[in-house]
Amino acid sequence: MSEAVTAYVLLGSNLGNRAALLHEARSYLAAAAGDIVAESGIYETAAWGREDQPAFLNQALALRTTLAPAELLAACLAAEQRAGRLRRERWGSRTLDVDILLFGEEIIALPDLTVPHPRLAERRFVLVPLAEIAGTLRHPQLGDTMEALLARCSDPLPVRPWAGE
Ligand code: GSY
């Protein structure tokens, strides 16, 4: 077993009962991956990449985990599969997406996992929830805090606190 690390993940859903899918993902990750030590509010966010699709709900979690990065990735993929996600169509609608954003201060380049998430600094739907729970955390490659990255982010797509259905 490895030493405990704080990893940050982003949950996203824009198909089905989005809030219930996020809830199930939190429960699964708490059982399979580690303690959830912080969670952001839930945000309703315009779809990035292909804008002709329903809005997402997004939420960031901090997980205290002893899993290795590849094991955490496997737990994230299992959470997606439990939510009925079969294909990973680029930019398409999905019942559940679980992305690893940060894994402690580690820089990871595996064939199927790049951490820090390569597009983290370009997307308000990532930075708004992440800055809520880790505003002063520094990006291990860019050196800026999440708050500073958010202040500089030019993504125009709306990100709003979710008020419920
Ligand atoms: O990259 C995660 C899946 N995804 C999202 C998302 O989670 N939120 C928003 N707003 N747009 C997205 N486009 C994709 S793909």
Tell me what the structure shows.
- With 165 residues, the protein is an alpha+beta fold.
- It has one domain (5-161): 2-Layer Sandwich (Alpha-Beta Plaits), CATH 3.30.70.
- 28% of the residues lie in helices and 26% in strands.
- The protein has helices spanning 18-32, 69-82, 124-134, 146-152; strands at residues 5-13, 35-39, 43-45, 56-65, 97-103, 108-110, 113-115, 159-161.
- The strands form two sheets. Strands 1, 2, 3, 4, 5 and 8 form a six-stranded antiparallel β-sheet that branches.
- The N and C termini lie far apart (41 Å).
- The relative contact order is 0.23.
- The mean pLDDT is 94.
- Bound molecules: 7-(2-hydroxyethyl)-8-mercaptoguanine (GSY).
- The site of 7-(2-hydroxyethyl)-8-mercaptoguanine (GSY) has 12 residues, from strand 4 and strand 5.
Throw out a few tags for this protein.
4 helices, Alpha-Beta Plaits, alpha+beta, six-stranded antiparallel beta sheet, 165 residues, binds 7-(2-hydroxyethyl)-8-mercaptoguanine
Measured as a percent range, the helix fraction is 25-40%
Please report the first level of CATH classification, the CATH class: Alpha Beta
The CATH topology turns out to be Alpha-Beta Plaits
The number of E-state strands comes to 8
The count of domains is: 1
Q: Give the ligands present.
A: 7-(2-hydroxyethyl)-8-mercaptoguanine
By CATH, the superfamily comes out as 7,8-Dihydro-6-hydroxymethylpterin-pyrophosphokinase HPPK
Do you know the CATH architecture?
2-Layer Sandwich
Which oligomeric state applies? Answer: single chain
Q: Characterize the largest beta sheet: strand count, sense, and whether it forms a barrel.
A: 6 strands, antiparallel
What value does the Rg take, in angstroms? 15 Å
Q: Structural class, from secondary structure content?
A: alpha+beta
Indicate the mean pLDDT.
Answer: 94
User: Which strand-content bin applies to the residues?
Assistant: 25-35%
Number of helices: 4
Q: Could you state the order of secondary-structure elements as H and E?
A: EHEEEHEEEHHE
Q: In whole angstroms, how far apart are the ends? A: 41 Å
Low-confidence stretches: none
Outline type: globular
